[in-house]
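Hi P.,

Sorry for the delay on this. The queue was packed all week, but I finally got your sequence through. Input first:
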Amino acid sequence: MTNSQPNNPLHGITLKMILEDLVAQVGWEEMGRQINIRCFTHDPSIPSSLKFLRRTPWAREKVEALYLEKIVRRK
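Then the structure:
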């Protein structure tokens, strides 16, 4: 079986993995500065952020874009 999304850098990466990696790399404060959403700026946690991002597509897209930016910088 071939990989169905060979050019998708997010393929196989869960939203939880993305959040955990971003928190480890930049922290909640910087994430809140770059993406001004309440789940990052007021009492942030992985579970509350996951709940919000799973039901808010525009916010999830911004988080994924930030993650991809951090991946590109790492390489």
